[in-house]
Amino acid sequence: MNSRLSLPGPRDVRATLDGDRDGGTVVVACPPHPQMRGDRHDGRLTAVSDGLVERGIDCLRFDYGPWDGGRGERTDVRTAVSWSREHYEQVGLFGFSFGGAMALLASVPDEGGPTPDTLSVLAPATQIDEDDVVAAVDAVECPAQVVYGERDDTADWEPTVERARERGWLVESLPADHFFVGQQTKTATLVVSFLADHLG
Fold this sequence. Notes:
By secondary structure, this protein is α/β, with parallel strands linked by helices. It has a single domain (2-199), classed as Rossmann fold (3-Layer(aba) Sandwich), CATH 3.40.50. It is built from 6 helices and 10 strands, in the order βββαβαβαβββαβαβα. The strands form 2 sheets. Strands 1-2-4-3-5-6-9-10 form an 8-stranded mixed β-sheet, sandwiched between helices. A two-stranded antiparallel sheet has the order 7-8. A hairpin with a 2-residue loop joins β7 (127-128) and β8 (131-132).
């Protein structure tokens, strides 16, 4: 079952909620770059959502509001997490590429708004304009995972992965490119297993 929602907040954020909407556990899924046709229907997001729903966890996939250079998009992530906190007991956060960077930045506790109980990012970018994603890794307090493709020459993922390892996060690699072509099922399994294990 899925429902279409318009999330209350300062920007126009549309979302799809997959699952039973039972108020137990949800994962917010952040799409890739909206200026590169990234949206909530991205194949990596839907694969993770399908896996979560099979495990009894709802998934809120959303679209960013009007492009704002990363600032408004981070607000959109917080809007989705805030809505989820109001409706669920536990909230996980997942993002792919640009969405992975947004998820990391929005998970910093002193950035304002609620933070997730656990975090998983897939092929996250290291720098979004002036925002330092590596610095965000230092500040995140919840259990976290990074998954990356060993042949990824699109995102500058190495500094984020290196810092995540230093912090003791679960870091997993696949013999894949940035888009995980032919590896979406395996990728989704890694992400879903981590999130489900840490969301109980």
